[in-house]
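Re: that backbone. Tokens:
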């Protein structure tokens, strides 16, 4: 799903003086997928998962030590939120049945997803929020916080959009949630997880090359947080041509990595000294690595084009491709199911008021 699975790079240009923190919740309801739970509920702060629930285990599992402390300070935390998740599980199961009817489907594998949350800039205090729904890998409907209206990219969602747009009071409550309540909870999570979530770990930078004709890769790994900027420059000027920027990927131990390739096919080796890779991360000095042939780690038997000639065949490109699979997700609380079928989607995708947590005592506050 394009809108839901795209990773957001929360750095504009090369300014990394501020950090945009985020609190996100993901719900996934599935039908006809035997290898995956019917319902999954995941919470993340600053892209770090802090809890998990699914329909197989039937309970909230805390994923970070600092969330354990939050739960100790709030003795009802686990029981309360497990009950909420179980309610969502039943409602989302009914919701996916409703959407199968809306899309005229009778069988097969189907997934309904929701991602919602908020962001907060720790420097200027600005906030933002989003609420996105998807069905079977495509965008279904999303909330525009600026206009307080809903965007329907597919015909099957138009009825839902029209109905939700008319409920101006509910949309105002969503605005209050995304800009205030959610942000308060984000700050609370940041306070509990400060030593983990607001730490800085310095990247290790390597120059890599698979073969003499391959691009030279600037590989930065082991850094935290993930809001990093890596680029090549020549004679002090940033390069935009012959450069391929990779994505920020997770490492297994909770840090991140990124690679940026530079194609030097048309550059004489004597000019390589004019090039350098620059890594910018808030809280540390910029890391600049000159394109020195002797520093390049290779796959063809030596370190560096001007290396010592020794057998270095065991040196391979140390790129760890993180295999973290998180189905971006969805589900909202279903309302009353005794309404006419033409209103089913509107009822099941709008959050009901019955199980809405308050901002004072619940993990997942939603507008009441």
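Recovered sequence:
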């Amino acid at each position: 799903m394009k809108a839901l699975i795209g990773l957001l790079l929360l750095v504009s240009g090369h300014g990394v003086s501020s950090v945009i923190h985020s609190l996100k919740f993901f719900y996934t309801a599935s039908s006809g997928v035997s290898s995956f739970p019917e319902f999954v509920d995941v919470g993340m702060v600053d892209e770090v998962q802090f809890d998990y629930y699914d329909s197989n285990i039937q309970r909230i599992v805390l994923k970070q030590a600092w969330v354990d402390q939050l739960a100790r300070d709030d003795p009802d935390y686990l029981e309360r939120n497990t009950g909420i998740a179980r309610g969502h599980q039943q409602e989302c199961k009914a919701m996916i049945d409703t959407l199968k009817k809306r899309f005229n489907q009778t069988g097969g594998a189907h997934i309904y997803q929701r991602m919602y949350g908020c962001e907060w800039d720790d420097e200027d205090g600005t906030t933002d929020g989003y609420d996105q729904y998807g069905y079977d890998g495509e965008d279904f409907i999303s909330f525009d916080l600026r206009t307080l209206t809903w965007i329907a990219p597919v015909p099957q969602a138009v009825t839902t959009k029209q109905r939700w747009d008319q409920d101006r009071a509910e949309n105002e409550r969503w605005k209050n949630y995304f800009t205030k309540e959610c942000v308060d909870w984000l700050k609370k999570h940041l306070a509990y997880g400060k030593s983990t979530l607001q730490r800085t770990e310095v990247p290790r930078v390597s120059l890599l090359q698979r073969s003499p004709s391959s691009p030279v890769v600037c590989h930065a790994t082991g850094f935290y947080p993930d809001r990093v900027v890596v680029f090549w420059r020549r004679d002090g000027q940033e390069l935009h041509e012959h450069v391929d920027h990779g994505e920020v990927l997770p490492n297994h131990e909770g840090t991140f990595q990124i690679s940026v390739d530079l194609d030097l096919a048309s550059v004489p080796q004597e000019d390589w000294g004019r090039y350098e890779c620059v890594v910018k991360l808030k809280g540390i000095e910029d890391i600049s690595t000159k394109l020195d042939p002797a520093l390049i780690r290779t796959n063809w038997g030596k370190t560096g084009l001007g290396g010592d000639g020794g057998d270095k065949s065991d040196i391979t490109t140390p790129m760890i491709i993180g295999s973290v699979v998180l189905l971006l997700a969805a589900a909202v609380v279903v309302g009353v199911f005794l309404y006419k079928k033409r209103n089913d989607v509107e009822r099941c995708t709008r959050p009901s008021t019955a199980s809405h947590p308050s901002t004072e005592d619940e993990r997942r506050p939603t507008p009441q």
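The chain is about 25% helix and 30% strand. The longest strand covers residues 20-31.
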